[in-house]
Predict the structure of SusC/RagA family TonB-linked outer membrane protein.
Amino acid sequence: MLCVGITFAQQHVTVRGRITDGESGAPLEGASVKIKENPRSGTPVSGSTGGFLIRAHQGQILQVNMLGYANKEIPIDGQNHDVVIKLDRSVNELTEVVVTGALGIKRSSRELGTSAQSVNNEELNLGKVVNPLLALSSKVAGLRINATDQTTGKTDPGIQIRMRGTRSLNRSKNDPIYVVDGVPLPNITRINPNDIADITVLKGANAAALYGSEGVNGAIMITTKSGKTGAGEVNFSNSTTFANVFLLPPAQKAFGQGQNGVYSAVSAESWGDRFNGEMRDFGLPINGIQPTKLYAAPARDNRLDFFDTGVTVQNDLSFSGGDAKSSYFLSLQDVRLKGVIPHDKSSRTGVRFNGTRSFDKLTTSFNANYVLFKNNTTSDGPWLSVYTQPANIDYNEAREWEDPSSPNHPLNWYNPVAGTRNPIFMANNNRNTANQHTLNSKLEFTYDFTDWFSVTNRTGYYLQAEAGRVTNKKLVSNIATRNINGTLNDSGRDFTRLNNDFMLNFRKEFGEFTTRLLLGHNIRMDDAKLINVQANNLLFEDIFNQGSRTGELSGGSTITQYRSLSTYGEFTMGYRNYLFLTLVGRNDRVSTLDPSNNSYFTPGVSASFVFTDAIAGPKNSKMLNYGRIYGSYNRTGNVTLDPYRLNLTYSQTNGFPYGSLVGFTPSLIEPNSRLKPEFVTSYEGGLQLGFLDSRLNADITYAYSDSDGQIFNAGISRATGFNSTYVNAGRMINNTLEVMLNGSAIRSQDIDLQFGINFTFTDTKAKDLYAGNEFNIFRQAYAIKDEPYPTLRMTDFERHEGKIVLDQSGNVLPSEEEVILGTMVPPYLFGFNTQFRYKEFSIGFQVDSRLGSWMYSEVIPRMYSAGTHPETVKYDRQPFLMPNTVIKQDDGTFTENTNVLSQGDKDWWTKYGAIQTTTAAKADYLKLRELYIGYALPNSVVQRQGVFKKASIGLVGNNVFIIKHSSNQIGDPEALYNQTDGYSSFRQIPTSRSFGFNINMTF
């Protein structure tokens, strides 16, 4: 829709307008506007509100071009004030799209010398997930997303996101930058996915060069919805899903509680005799009465009864509208989550307002999003208690723990050891609660001085305030091991970010050349404050107050500030709309480095050539309708140092210098004022093709990055007075191949079949390391020179000529040297998605596969030790002759094992489970991640009633099924612990699958 106001000044007129989608009425950003008779008039591009400004003469023709839309020509006659013109979608230009580039600027994909991939609202919300990042899983080539189980994150899992591999040896510094409506945000997990119009993934530092250090890992560019011109619109949707855990590690159900084959009424380990179905004593007498329990394992896995059915209910309501000069979008969301762990729950309530307004040459836009998130979850312990306890425990009965006469009460539980308390009581007694307030907002002004020069100032403000409380109820018993010291920890976390970009935009045509120059200045100010106060020995069971305690309080406060100042520029020149060259430069100054080294420059260059428009043969081909080659080079400075790491800090030490005198000792980390940024040199090249009128499209990209001079803490000689110092050392190399295929297998009025396939191969290797050829990252994860990063290295069985070595008592022996199993990050990623529509029925699904990596679990050795692992009953708990083994003699020689029996008892299986390779498995999997089946009411039905304009209902499933490697008895390879790779902690709970329904109505 184009609203034109014409002001006469002699023969010149000023044409001002607004361009919108002819079907939806939404403003179109990035549309090209020019005067047909005057190619030197400049080429304005419509802004975020669809508005533009250009000078012309009366009687000339205004041309409006937009990729994906049919071109439009409008005569300028001075009489067409506020005329509504709709741009119609064109099915012949599906290969070329408009993407959200750096700084939130809309650009034609043909201009880009780098790879970028967009995901629209429909694709994003296929699985109706609450977290928008999880919705991106397997939809974008080169992007790997994992849900991570944090200590307090059972209903709000953390997210690990990696783009084109790992660049930094600092595990917490590999996330991309998140940008919402042009404003960088530290976190986007609280954004309502239904508010998102589309997400563009800018892959690597080449595509996100304008962001400097923060763009070194790529950028996730989010554009939220805006108002639509015309009559107002109201949308309501409800999504309700039900989740149940699956992929539990297998457990044996043959033997019950006890030790050395003998039943024990108070043992929590499964080393007793075989289940026989008789009634036996269970635990200690209660008020002189001995409880009993059936000594048998149920046919159903009893551990499943510990978990609840999780429920997620999302309700969304939005209002949108607008006219020629303004638009608005208002949304409300309420989400209620019930976790699979008993008593776990959370809620999220949010409101968003997006508004725009044009005032002659001034265009303004304002966004504000507020979210209140409440979380109430258990901490570590309950699930750990479940998988190590015997198979005859009834967890439905365990839920009645509040009855003081019940054997399920914590003072009466059959086993008094703290680690095996009633897990339902543990979940209820140890609670983490938090109230989190998140506000992000943007205020933007654009002033068009002329049709070729404009100025934009964009200010973003982000605030997150969280008040948390961790409580552990006091429990007093005459049995010491049942006692619980009541604890209380109150915490407060506040974070604010002020971001401001001031940009000068120049656009001009010179004959067959088009030019665009962007000059900008950025200021970033981050402030964080963390406070916690803890009491570790409360006096009363029902009073949670630090004043009601014995002993001293613990805790403290931390205040940090970060500042950056940046200047950047981008120049793009195009020739006849098929050849483009872009130059990028950015200079950053950051507060975390010493002033002598805190300024650094990032240069970049990229080019794009649409050869089907330039060469006559391909241009007229019906088989190949679109072809483009592109490439880029970039050298990005990167600072992964947290604030104050180069300050020499002091801490108070008891008894120093002596007695009660107060003294302070310096940190053992030497502040290195010579520390510089690391630099990431990256190259990228690609080929984009469209076949058969864009029914089949292909994009093939190769990317290389070299991260040199990495910043990390390295050990030094203690003779210096320090233990370590931050240094520039270490190098990481990434090679990535990405292949994307998408198209329309069937495209008609009644039947439509769309599909998309993406494949990624990533080879990440650690190169030069500071000290030696390796260092430990976490647990069994290592950085080893010239090996894939990270590498899984573990102890194996000692072997001789391929056979397992036993000692003379029949026990397994660990290898003297650890063995390398392989990478802990899948080098091969596959994603397949399809959407099929027949009239009003639609089906969509997403398949995800990851191959080539290893994982390990700390659950497995604990199950071996507790006697719950199925391997421990392999030989019926009897001495056995272990096959394919040799005996190690005193003189170091080996003999074939023909008569040395392994005992097969707790001690033997504990040693067996301590061999770390028994905990490892191939992490290959193929998963049906998302499934949607929907039905939309036909127009004939909708038109007969006057209540709503559109309505649909659907069924949805997530994690519907998984096919995993036969060696994997651990669980879901995608579920990680915190920011690790390939590691499944003894703390984290199993993965869930969910099914549900959703309803959508438009009024």
